[in-house]
Write a structure and sequence with these properties.
Structural class: mainly beta
Strand content: 35-45%
Helix content: 10-25%
Shape: globular
Pfam families: DUF7918
Protein name: DUF7918 domain-containing protein
Largest sheet: 7 strands, mixed
InterPro entries: DUF7918
Organism: Sordaria brevicollis
Number of domains: 1
Length: about 280
């Protein structure tokens, strides 16, 4: 489970095909390099001395469904930020390859799993999108067919849980329309800038009913900045090996006491110019 010391009792994780994904840590310097600038966050007393960002890597399994898990069973942090006389509370948003869902109020004292979202409008209809991993087609020396802007391309291979502070307005309204996720068919190798991204998020979409009326919430921060971000970068196990997140497996060699790393024969031959 990913945690932040500044938000004790809150745990965030990813489940893949019904099983909790194993999380792999990265070097603290890498985390610091990837963390958003401090000014990107709405500062609260709990996060005054820390950049409220955590980074983990997980294994993606193309074709398998996944979900976000927010465990607030033991979370009881109170926030001083007030708008009028109303106490601020946490709302969450999930981001997948840069596609962001609507925010939802975090339920204190409960475990919530989120495996789908709704988008659409009254004119064209509404759809439910269930999350799963797919294999990404990386095209060598080609911009691909993703039609993503450079900033969006850098979001490929990333799942995020983003936390905001909001207050209740006491008003209810029908859900506004929203655009659905943009499919990523392929992406150019150059767009990935050396990252071993080999998977993507796909959506199993089906028609659904119009979302019910929901209570309106107001952002505490006028710039709509989050208070914390949990990021999970996903790769297949092969991709995790390529980015050196997970060491290559070792095997026992007969007649030797020492273990040796498994060597990719094709890679070695390419180095020697034999292919």
């Amino acid at each position: 489970m990913a945690i932040l010391l500044c938000l004790p009792g809150l745990e965030v994780a990813i489940e893949v095909d019904g099983q909790r994904a194993r999380e792999y840590n990265v070097d603290p310097e890498e985390v610091q390099k990837c963390a958003p600038n401090e000014l990107s966050f709405h500062r609260i007393p709990q996060t005054d001395r820390h950049v409220p960002y955590v980074l983990k890597y997980i294994e993606a399994k193309p074709g398998k469904p996944f979900c976000f898990v927010l465990d607030a069973t033991n979370f009881n942090v109170k926030f001083d930020d007030m708008v009028g006389a109303k106490e601020a509370k946490i709302s969450t948003q999930v981001s997948m390859d840069g596609f962001k869902t609507r925010t939802r109020r975090m339920l204190i004292g409960r475990v919530v799993k989120r495996d789908c979202c709704k988008t659409g409008n009254d004119a064209s209809g509404w759809k439910k999108h269930t999350f799963r991993f797919g294999r990404l087609n990386v095209v060598e020396g080609n911009p691909g067919t993703s039609q993503l802007r450079p900033q969006q391309a850098q979001q490929c291979g990333s799942l995020k849980v983003i936390l905001f502070l909001k207050v209740d307005t006491g008003r209810f309204a029908l859900s506004k329309g929203s655009s659905g996720p943009m499919p990523i068919h392929s992406i150019g190798e150059k767009e990935l800038k050396g990252r071993a991204v080999d998977s993507k998020v796909e959506f199993d979409s089906e028609p659904t009913d119009r979302p019910r009326s929901v209570e309106q919430h107001q952002f505490v921060d006028p710039q709509y900045r989050p208070i914390a971000v949990f990021e999970f970068r996903y790769r297949t196990m092969e991709g995790l090996h390529q980015e050196l997140i997970v060491p290559h497996p070792v095997v026992d060699v007969k007649g030797e006491d020492k273990k040796q790393q498994v060597i990719d024969v094709e890679d070695e031959y390419e180095k020697e110019g034999k292919f």
